[in-house]
Task: structure prediction
Amino acid sequence: MGPDRARAKGRLLHLGQTVLILLVCTAVAALFDRVGIRQENITMVYLTGVLVIVVETGVFFWGIVASLVCVFVFNFLFTQPRLTFRIADPSYIVTLILFLLVSLIAASLTSQLQRHAQLARKKEDQTQRLYEISRSFLNLSGLKEVVCHGVASIYEGVQRRCVVYLIEEGGGLSQPYYLPGHYLDGVEVGDDTLAKWCLKEGEPCGCGTENFAISQWRYAPFKSGSRPLGVVEVYCGNAPLGEEETLFIDTVISQLALAVEREQLYALQQRNQVEIEKEKLRNNLLRAVSHDLRTPLTGIGGSAEFLRHSYDQLDRETAMKLLGDISGDVAWLESMVENLLNMTRIQDGKLALQVKNEVVDDVVAEATARLARLPHTRPVAVSLPDELLLAPMDGKLMVQVLVNLLGNAVAHTPDSAAIRLAVHGEGERVVFEVSDNGGGVAPELLPHLFDSFVTSPGDSRRGIGLGLSICQSIVQAHGGGIEAENNDIGGATFRFWLPLEKSEEEGKKCLQSAVF
Result:
């Protein structure tokens, strides 16, 4: 239904209400006249009718119409001579004039009272909406969610399309944020040139302002103190913003500025915390690496120097043993360097997974082969399922996880302890278990096994305590989980699992640009 049709329908409704109320008043007045009630009371009936008409229609015009009609009807039906518009008694003229004046004044006062009541209710609703908006900003987290809520709040409050630009770190404007579907009917987003001008000058521009008033958009900057945060762009079209709309929008913008500043400060705090953690990690790595590199490098250097000077005097068995020691130390160094590289990638958020379907048997075979090249290793009993298992994973990283767990079991159990690697399918996931019977883990150490730089108290064996932490990060990046426990055969069991299918990332509801 078009606006003109709606207005015509409203006028017909008001006309019907007016006619019906006047008919009721006339019927009551006729009844009063029949039972002999004085005419002053009859005028009060019509005066009451005028007030009811103003209240029901909410339009002062119909009060004026009703007042005039009541004067003529009263004169026609209830003054002498009856059923004519002539007035025999001149005092009736004064009565009718006073009745008309009182009716108009009463109708005007009632109409004003109604308008004030409507305005009070409207302001109350607007205040309640602003309170709800302010409170809801406190419950949001994330810059996109905050901006989404600000845009939606302005649209819900004044039914105006809205766009928000944020200032990026380089000083430029971000892509516009706005609600989906609002710009698919031929209305284009406003020119960001005016948004930049508004941001530079720090004052509103566009429709309803003195600057670039020809524009169909109103641009308003929002800031924190003297630091600009962005620009809010509201569509005016052919209907400029009213005073109440402007006040509502400005209030929402001020709440949006506080929320955006809060999120930016939180993000800055998080970045600072990350940098502190990175620096702490670098210091720990430097201390650990400088200590742990010394032993294998000293062994490699000593063995190589001894071979160089005494090669002709050494028997083959002694020479092969020295070369084996060198080879084992090099393999251990390679494993440690691989762990260090993975840890730095994880800390920097640059651990990229090359996920594809891998045969679990092949991954296990590669891990046990790499373990066999490490120094002081032992045989591992392997248990694989009868059926062929395929799982999406980064094969290279998963081999590193298994080597870390198996190497950890070798390093922290007696030579007589048995080590077992078992793999089996369990519903929609594949489970890997590395277990031993070498004495288990101290109960106080179990909750902290997967933290960085955790080693057993008094443990003098080589290792910087990164292996299990790296295992956890890699497994979780695959969408799996890892845990450790003391088993019932007198040792420890490390268990991790991976999903058998790739999981699709859920769609985000808050986006930028044309799909926001």
The longest strand covers residues 227-235. The first helix runs from residue 3 to 34. Residues 457-464, 503-516 have pLDDT under 50 and may be disordered.
